[in-house]
Structures are given as structure tokens and as C-alpha cells.
Amino acid sequence: MSGPLQMTAGDGPAVGESDEAARNLTVRKLLRALWRDKLMLFPLFFLVALMLAAVGADLLAPHDPFDQNLRSRNLPPMSSAASEPSSFPYLLGADPLGRDLFSRLIYGARVSLAVGLSSVLASGTLGVLLGLMSGYHRGWLDDLVMRGVDVLMGIPGLLLALFILFLVGTGFWNLVIVFALTRWMIYARVTRGLTLSFREQPFVEGAQTIGCSDSRIIFRHILPNLASPVLVLATLEIAIVILAEAGLSFLGMGIQPPAPTWGRMVAEGRDYITSAWWLITFPGLAILLTALSLNLTAAWLRMVSDPVQRWRWFMGRPESRREGDSGTATADSEPESSRTGMASPEPVHGPAANGDHLLEVIDLRVNFRTPDGVLNAVNGISYTLNRGQTLAILGESGSGKTVSAEAVMGILDSPPGFVTGGSVLFDGIDLLQASPSRRRRLCGERIAMIFQDPLTALNPAYTVGSQIAGMFREHRGTSKREATAKAVELMDRVRIPSASERVHDYPHQFSGGMRQRVMIAAAIALDPDLLIADEPTTALDVTVQAQIMELLAELQVETGMGLILITHDLGVVADVADHVAVMYAGKIVETGPIEEIYSNPAHPYTKGLLESAPRVDRKMDSLQQISGAPPNLRFIPPGCPFHPRCAYVVDRCLVEPPPLYAVQQGRSASCHRFEDVMDVN
After folding, report:
1. Lowest mean pLDDT among 88-102, 165-179, 331-345
2. From the centroid of its chain, how far is CA 77?
3. DSSP summary character for residue 90
4. Would you give the distance in Å from CA 503 to the centre of its chain?
5. Could you tell me the sign of the dihedral formed by the alpha carbons of 645, 646, 649, 654, in that order?
6. Which of 61, 365, 469, 630 has a CA that sits 20 to 30 A from residue 603's CA?
7. Among candidates 236, 257, 290, which has minimal Cα distance to 43?
8. Per-residue pLDDT tens for 31-84?
9. What is the predicted pLDDT for the residue at 346?
10. Mean pLDDT over all residues of the chain?
11. CB of 192 closer than 8 Å to CB of 226
12. Looking at residue 224, what is its pLDDT?
């Protein structure tokens, strides 16, 4: 339950690569990505060098950091002692007691890093454990921990540290204990908040239903999800502790002489700031560069430790929209020879009587960069949509339906996704070439989208009324009062009961069907010309599904908008769609009027989809399922991508990608044997 989802590879490499090879591959990609991100090279190299110097201080220090030589007092950098001209020079100069500043800086790094790491380990362990327990169990433990956090957070940390050190005395371990006692609250607060959030997640509820103990849920299911934020917080805390230790040592309450510490060195050099500038400059730079490097490293760790952020950072941003054209040819790329003697691809449906194409998608291609290679999500799809018409895009999960819609809307996550070819013409305007400001205006006013999950699409921090009203305030400059009134009208329009009262409710106060109606109200607020509905009835019961589809049909009649329905449920669109485009492995494999495709499909995949769903228009002895699974889009099979699952496969299908054959007037199918498929029907 807590393991990662696995993706099967169609005709890709054998599934049993060694763990060592996989690890080496990850390291190579990490180093390549790190080399691209030049900003991170210096802080990482600096910290690595600092830690190596601290560990090997006994070998690297050219002088004994405790050896005093008054004849060498306050020598400038790169000078040698007058009494020992042949000795190793004082690289960074000498202090008022004639001690080598460079050697003392190295040993000071050992002290600062040891205090920082030890304190963070102690405070982090204590804070994370208390945060986990209080967030998961809540009740009196949560009250006790959080009240303690509130009290301690209200006391200045440095003042509290000074008070404790005054009582118990100074020293290395006393400093570690003081920092642990004054910094654990940060971890506890962050961990407790995240635990409260994860506690309500389905994966935790699922672990509870199978009888997992509380300790197993806490440490095996919740704690791994805290790794990224806690690691980032700990890195930042090391910098804070090093700065605090330097401050305490500067005040004389930290590590005591003769042990070298950066803060003590700054304090000793302040009296010589005009005559021996190096005494305060180099320790100050060491503190500054260490704290800065740790802060930059924390930002880098945020990218590397979070799986969602990591692969985007690995891939980087494409330099242009067309990047990757030459290197992303897939196994299903269609050779020119295969088109010889074949009909050219047909549009999804014929042009309207007045030729009024609202949307034209032409050879759209979308790829995703992943740590394991390029994933070909959309492989050259073309369709048109006329005003007032409804196009249903069908297919299994992973066929490229939602990705193609996101590319049209301009909300594709980039990285890792990027458009590598094609055009999207909306009312004659190429959306892929339009400026960001123009595209925002079009997508806000004339193009709208209903997302798959309304609970995550709606902002939980704002009322539904304010989110609907925001459309008018953003694009029309409407006053708050007038925008709220329009929001109430829209909620009435989509048949939300007691709209004038519920306009001030939050998304979590609505049922799934009502949240979907709120999403529809926001989408149609500005009377768009095009509405894209991405699985608008997912997870809703059949009665609510019917109501939502009926509502969309009524709104379309009222406004005359074009409608694209994305779904994998054939029954949902049967009564509302005019035309159908069936997608498989990122390509459109069949198109045409819905009545003709439902009654006599021309592609084996469409036929399999229809036979796997109950039909009321014909007698069915049993439901049939399509054997196998959709291909891994990184390794799309050569020839026809459906051939590993097809009952009509012949040798030609294994090597020659089929084009969209003109099956009938206004119908197309990407199958070499479409005639045999239709004859069987």
C-alpha cells in the first residue's frame, strides 16, 4: 500500500535491471542535472570541502592552532615568522597571540559543524517524535505539546539559551542540549501540521482498515512522507544553530578558549578591525559562506528529496516549444511509404455547413521528460470542433485525453511536459504561438475548463461564491457586490438549492455533485465559446451523472458553445455527443458521428470498449474485456500500437503503422482491417 505504483513496459527493455545499475543511472542523472544548475555547484562544493577540512583538520592544518608565538602576532596574510623564515607561511595571517588564523579556521569549522549537526539531530528527533504523536493521536497529548510549543515560541531563543547556559555553565554538550531544548518546537509544529493532513488521507485510512497498528502507520506510512520537508528544515536549522553558536561564542557564552570557534575569533578581532582587518574578515566570511551555502543547499534538497519536484529538476526547462523533435521519434512514427495509396487523414467530423470551425487541433504532439527517458503522451492528433457541437474524446486512462486538453488550455506542466509539434487554432488564432497575456485573456473569457476533481480544483481557503465572483472581477472589473450577485445567479442557473445562502459556504461543505455544479458555474460565468469538460462525472453516482450531463446539454443549447467531453465512460456521452474521437496510446484511432460508431465500430479497440460496457440497444450474453493493458508510452510497440491486444492482428500490423483510413463520409479509423471489423459487426 505504501509502495510506489509500477508501470509496465510494452516492448521496452527487460524488466530485471540490477539495483546497482539503476542506482548508477540515478547518480549520473543527478550529476548531469547538478552540472546544469550552476548556482548549486559552489554551495555544494564549499560544504563538501568544509566538511572534509573539518574532519581532516589534523592533517590539513599547517600549524598547531594552539601554538602561540608573540613574534608573529598580527602578521598579515601570506607572511612567515621573522624567527622562522623557512616555515610554512601564515596563509590568512596570525592573531594577536601569533596563532595561525587558517589553522584555527579549520578547527573552528569542526566545532561549528559538530555543534550544528549534533544539535539538529537531537532537536529534530525530539521534535519529529512529539509532532508525530500529537498530530496522530491528538487529544490531551496534542494539547500538552502545542501549549508547550506556544510558550517556548513566545520566548526569544537567544535569551532563553543565555539563561540556561548561565545556570548550567558553558561547554560543547551544554550547548547541544540548550539548542535541542530551544529548537525542537520548530520540528514539532511542522511535523504535527503535516501529520494532521496525512492522517486524513486515503492511504492512511486504508492502512487502518487492514489492521495496521498505530506505530506502523506512524513510522511506515506517515514518516516517509515527512522526509522531504524535515530534511529541508534540518538543513536550514544547521545554519541557524551555527549562527547562534557564533553569537554565543562572541558573547563569551559558547565554547570557551583556547578551543577555536568562529564567533570567538570575530570577538577577538573586533579590537583590531582597522589595523588587522584579516582577523575579523576571514572568520566572518566563513560564517557567511557556510550559512549561505546551507540555505541554498536546502532549496536544492527540496528539489531532490521530493519525487514530484525531483524529476522536473532533472529534466530542466525546454528551450523552445519545438525542442526534442529530432530526438523523440517513437516506434509508432509513420513512415512516408506507409501513406502511399492510402487516404489522407480525415478530420473528426466534416466541416459545418458554414465552415465555421471553432477549434482546429492539427498534428498536436506532447512529450514528457522523465528520469527514465521521453514519454510520448500525444503522438500527432488532429480534430476540429464547430460552434454548438459536442465532441467526446474516449479512451482508457493513460491514452492522452487529459494531456491533449491541457495542451489546448496552455496549462501543461512544463517541465516535465512540453509541446513538440502541431498547432491549436481557436477561431483562427494559434494558441501555441500566442503571447501569454493574450492566451490568458482567451482562456479566461472565451475558453473554459471543468476539471476532473472539483474538490482539489476549488480553493479550500475561499468560499465558492468568491471563486465564481472572481471571474467577473478579474476579467470584467465588476464590483464585489455585483460579482457576488452574479455568482448567486450562476449557482441558481446550475440548480444549486438555496444559492443565496450557500454562496458563502466553502467547498468542503458541498457534496461531490454540488461541487461539480460549482465548477460548471465558474466555467460558464463569462459565457465561453468553448468548454472542455475533463471527466466531469468521475466518482459520481449514475443519477448525479445524468443530471450533470443534462445540465451541460441545456447550457450548450442556451449559449451555443462548443463542448469537448473527455471520458472513459461510453454511456455518459451517448445522449449528448455529436461526434466521437477514440484515443489509444496518444493517437486518435477512430472518429465519426456517435450513432454510427456506436452501432458499427471500425476499429478493434472501439469495438472492445463497446463490448466491455452494458448496452441497452442490443442483446448481450456477457460483457467482454480487452485483453492485456495499454502500452508504456516510453516504449510504444512498432506498427499498430494496439496489435499486442488485437484479435484481428496480421503480420502487416506488426511493422506498418496504419493511417486514418476514410471509412465512410465523415468517418475514419486507424486500422488496416477496418472492413473486416465492420463486417463482423
Report:
1. 331-345
2. 49
3. B
4. 31
5. negative
6. 365
7. 290
8. 666 676 677 788 888 999 999 999 998 888 888 888 888 888 888 888 876 556
9. 38
10. 81
11. no
12. 86
Quickly count: other Cβ atoms within 10 Å of residue 605's Cβ.
29
pLDDT reading at 25 higher than 50: no
Residues 6+ apart with CB under 8 A from 224: 2
Strands 373-386 and 357-370: antiparallel
Angle in degrees, CA 390, 394, 398, rounded to 5 = 135
Structure confidence by residue, pLDDT tens digits, 413-447 = 777 788 988 999 998 889 888 888 888 788 777 88
Rounded to 5 degrees, what are φ and ψ at 282?
-70, -45
Tell me the C-alpha distance between 420 and 417, whole Å.
10
- List residues bridging with 562 in a β-sheet: 530
Distance separating alpha carbons of residues 358 and 355, to the nearest angstrom = 9
d(CA 239, CA 251) in angstroms, rounded, equals 19
The amino acid occupying position 135 is G
Q: How many C-beta neighbours within 10 Å does residue 158 have?
A: 14
For residues 435 and 19, the model is more confident at 435
* DSSP-derived secondary structure for 507-568: GGGS-HHHHHHHHHHHHTTT--SEEEEESTTTT--HHHHHHHHHHHHHHHHHH--EEEEEES
In whole angstroms, give the CA distance from residue 403 to residue 424: 14
Which amino acid, residue 305? Answer: S
Burial of 295 (0-12, 13-18, 19+ CB in 10 A): middle
C-alpha cell at 99: 596563532
Residue 27 backbone phi and psi in degrees, to 5: -65, -45
Percent helix, percent strand, percent coil in the chain, to nearest 5: 50, 10, 35
Report d(CA 400, CA 481) in Å as an integer: 41
Give the span between the Cα atoms of 633 and 400, in whole angstroms: 10
Among the residue ranges 310-324, 457-471, 473-487, 512-526, the one predicted with the least confidence is: 310-324
Query: Among residues 339, 391, 317, which one has the least CA distance to residue 361?
Result: 391
- Distance, C-alpha 68 to centroid of its chain: 56
Q: Are 589 and 643 in contact (CB under 8 A)?
A: no
Q: Which residue has the cell 472492413?
A: 675
For the four alpha carbons of 116, 118, 124 and 130, in that order, the dihedral sign comes to negative
Q: ∠ at Cα 184 (183, 188), nearest 5°? A: 130
User: 79 burial class (0-12, 13-18, 19+ CB within 10 angstroms)?
Assistant: middle
Locus of grid cell 456477457? 622
Helix, coil or strand: residue 492: helix
User: 10 Å Cβ neighbour count for 125?
Assistant: 13
CA dist 481 to 469, 496, 635, Å? 9, 20, 55
pLDDT, residue 12, reads: 39
In the block, cell 561547554 appears at 171
Determine contact, residues 369/555, Cβ cutoff 8 Å: no
Partners of 361 in the β-ladder: 383, 424
Buried b vs exposed e over 213-227: b needs ≥16 C-beta within 10 Å?
eeeebbeebbbebbe
Count CA within 13 A, CB hemisphere, residue 511: 9
Residue type for position 331: A
Q: Indicate the burial class of 6 (C-beta count within 10 angstroms; 0-12, 13-18, 19 or more).
A: exposed
- Total residue length of the chain: 681
* pLDDT grade for 573, boundaries at 50, 70 and 90: confident
pLDDT computed for residue 147 by the predictor:
92
Grid coordinates belonging to 406: 491541457
pLDDT at 348 over 50: no
Percent of residues, the chain, with pLDDT higher than 70: 83
Would you tell me how many other CB atoms lie within 10 Å of the CB of residue 356?
A: 13
- The closest of 30, 370, 395 to 381, measured between CA atoms, is 395
CA distance 138 to 385: 54
